[in-house]
Amino acid sequence: MSRIMITCPETGKPIYTGMNFDWPAIEPCVVQQGSLTCPRCGQVHEWRDREVFPEEDGGEA
Ligand SMILES: [Zn+2]
């Protein structure tokens, strides 16, 4: 499983979107767009599928 991340445009840091997917199996229609309240800067960021990237579980988590 990979955690679906976006990059905070304010801080340039990765943010966890709260979703997990088996990345190779991910479908473009599954992760199309969304928004979340950024834990780093407190703003709401909207994102689209091309802006997300996977972060493997098992790192610092
Ligand atoms: Zn942010």
Give an overview of the whole structure.
The chain is an all-beta fold. It has one domain. Helices cover 0% and strands 46% of the residues. The protein is built from no helices and five strands. The strands form two sheets. The chain has a three-stranded antiparallel sheet, with no helix packed on it. Strands 3-4 form a two-stranded antiparallel sheet. A hairpin with a 6-residue loop joins strand 3 and strand 4. The chain is globular, with a radius of gyration of 11 Å. The protein starts with a strand and ends in a 5-residue tail after the last strand. The relative contact order is 0.34. The model has no long low-confidence stretch (mean pLDDT 82). It binds zinc ion. Zinc ion binds next to loops.
Give keywords.
mainly beta, 61 residues
Task: Describe this structure in a few short sentences.
The chain is mainly beta and 61 residues long. The chain has no helices and five strands.
Which molecules are bound in this entry?
zinc ion
Number of helices: 0
Strand coverage percent: over 45%
Helix content: under 10%
Classify the secondary structure makeup into a structural class.
mainly beta
**What's the average pLDDT?**
82
Ends apart, CA distance between termini: 13 Å
Unreliable runs, pLDDT <50, ≥5 residues? Answer: none
* N-to-C series of helices and strands: EEEEE
Number of domains: 1
Q: What's the gyration radius in Å? A: 11 Å
